[in-house]
Amino acid sequence: MFDKKWICNEVKDDDVLKLSKEAQVSTLLAKVFLSRGINDKDYIKSFLNPSKDKLHDPFLMKDMDKAVERILEAIEKGQKILIYGDYDVDGVTSTSVLYNFLSSIGVNLDFFIPNRINDGYGITFDTAETIVNLGCQLVITVDCGVSAIREVDFIKSNGIDIIITDHHECREEIPDALAVINPKRPDCPYPFKELAGVGIAYKLVAALCDRLQLGDIYYKYLDIVTIGTIADVVPLVGENRIIVSNGLKIMRNTTNIGLMELLKHCNKNNDDITTWMVAFIIAPRINAAGRMGDAKRAVTLFTTKDRTTAMEIAGLLSSENKLRQDIESAIIDEVLNKIESDNKYKDKKVMVVSGEGWHHGVIGIAASKVTERYYKPCIILSCENGILKGSGRSIEGFNMFMALCACENLLDNYGGHEMAAGLTLKEENLEEFDRLLNNFADNNMKEEDLVPKVKIDARLARNEINLRSISEIEMMSPFGVGNPSPLFLYENVRIADLRTVGNDKHLKAVFEDQGLTVDGIGFNMGNLSKDLLSEDFVDVVCSLDKNTWNSVDRAQLVLKDIKYSKDIVSEQKFYNSLEKCVGFVVENVGDNYQNNQVCDMAFQDTEEIEDKVKLFINDDKKTIILVNSMESAKKIKKMHENLHGCIKKKLNICYTCFNDQDDAGTILVINPCIEHLHSFNADRVVFYGLWSVPGYIDLVYNRLKGHEAECICLLSKTDKQGGMNVELKRQDIEVVYRYIRANSINSLLLGNMVVLARKIALNYKINMNYFKLKKSIEILGELGLLKAHYKNDYHVSIDFNKDIKGKTSLDNSSLYKKLQLFQIVK
User: Fold this and answer.
1) pLDDT (average), residues 125-146
2) Strands (DSSP E) along 15-80, which ranges?
3) Please, which residues have CB within 8 angstroms of residue 563's CB and are 6 or more apart in sequence?
4) Closest Cα to residue 545, out of 511, 521, 574, 523?
5) 3-state DSSP call for residue 244?
6) Residue 599 near residue 697 (C-beta atoms within 8 A)
7) What is the model's pTM?
8) Could you give the domains of the chain?
9) How many CB atoms neighbour CB 757 within 10 A?
10) For the residues 284-300, what does the mean pLDDT come to?
11) Picking from 74-78, 371-375, 490-494, 533-537, which range would have the lowest pLDDT averaged per residue?
12) φ and ψ at 158, to 5 degrees?
């Protein structure tokens, strides 16, 4: 809830209205398109109408003509063609599409899928020897082969021609095959580079249909092509969008017997088939064939004409997928235990985790889950007989394939792309591989790359949350990588109701905004219920969805992330920073401290002060403004906002110490910590507003007065009549003690102190905040009533001492006495 960076692209209202009119879309869709950098009305119209006739000419691909001519020669001469695929969904569907077409025109044909465990990824020397012994005259690879330079040479040396179709990244050297069809070749002019392996196999089929004058019969294979395209997580834009959009429609009425039978297991309620269903329900069953056994079964499923065979394979793959889930869960538990029990992983940007006997078929999925959990690139390796084989998954900003290229001298084999890769190495090279890989990461990744980012398309108004908006957004489907379902920022809404559902796994909320309410559901977000309360004001990132209940359709928010509203966050930061600087203050300002000349001479009329502040934040001098109250900070921010139209300098806000010292502008320092006021760059320093402790201003003033900057005090007569909720009273501490005692389980209480403070305030109807709660806990600890252990600034575990006998007095706490200093400057 607190560790993700939200990125919301701001778009101008005038631009939204203009695009909405030109492209004939709603303002909501116009905002989304503009946020994604799209302002071309013709592109938008084409995007919203992904027609098959917009697919590119397959002969634009380098070597496509050579490949077609050689295949036609093989057909004419009756030569045997072998299709060499891969064991994942992309490889299986690629093989199936090409096999179904070639077999339909009577080609002498066979296919080969390497075993994931015994053979490994791609073409190896062992599988190359197998190819040679199969008696074929032509080999066509699908979804692999672009890295198999020596293996291709070996196959050619045995008198066999080879055509490579692949979509993976190319190394500097490509194989010396008869044809290498890969749009990522540097010399390939094909306009769309992001096809999956199955997309390129489909293009080969389309080219063959053209030369054989078979018309557009290749369209019927789009259902299988769609499965491989979605499963391989390629961007759903351009041709991929056209393929998937049309393929999903064909899939609903597929004529492929194997797919029919598989859908009986995956879609028993006959729901609409979506990219989500393909990615998370259909594809894992196909993958189970290669992960848990022989992937050839999946090819047989999609190529058989026998319904009984298809039924048997579909049922078997569903059973094996369940077994895969169980094995995967066990491996993930082991991996997480290794990571959590070894501090070395905390400082590394890439986590390399190895273990004995982990199932090769599922470690790629495990790597994905671990990467998602820690938001770090992760490679998981299984060791057998001194050989490590594994898979890696990456995050945005780190190219996994290039990282492996930097370590290739230590690898026996590797391949992949930016976000995922497979590799093999000797166990003796593991330590050096880990070092080189992380050295590459240190040189190519910034710390900010390790912070998960939530990319938001647009801000959402309450009047845009309706069924019409949902229908408009659906026009942008199919959704996936490159075209995610739009995310919206819905700001400063009140939680009217909050609960968990699904065995506390999911979060269910009702939000209220200007008298109108809307439901929200957060899948797998039930843990956030500990940090939120009804009546909280929050900002939410969400997508829009339709919820049907009792045949009634309603718009709802599908929650992706939640943060406290800006006001609550500012309050948290204020009290946290106040707590950080208070120690120095209470130690250095005593009851007998009388040197309050700064305060005595500083009070002025409010209007006169505001005029001066406005001048200071808008002239050419660099100004630092020091405040010690939320109210004062809010006033400075408001004055700066009101001058926005003619403002010369930006306002930098920081807590306890100076930041951005080299930036020209105004720096607002909230709760300045005297220990951090050693050096700064400014023309003037302004003391403004309310201050919580008599003498605090003098301490800060005396620390700064030797500096070249001019020191100015602007304390208004009106402000000093106000108050801040920092004065800790006996009643506050008693209430904190009662709450901890009542809510401790086995004498232990865990929680977020911000949330605990608000719960105490609601339950006991008193003013309570982070600062007062933390100081109360420290005082109670000083008195021996409890022990507190802090995980970070906000999370605490409290051991309640239930064995203490007799009464104790707050007068026995030196901290309590010192904190009585905290009163408003009078």
Assistant:
1) 95
2) none
3) 1, 2, 6, 538, 539, 540, 569
4) 521
5) helix
6) yes
7) 0.81
8) 5-9+454-564 (2.40.50.460), 53-320 (3.90.1640.30), 342-450 (3.10.310.30), 568-721 (3.40.50), 730-819 (1.10.10.10)
9) 24
10) 93
11) 533-537
12) -100, 20
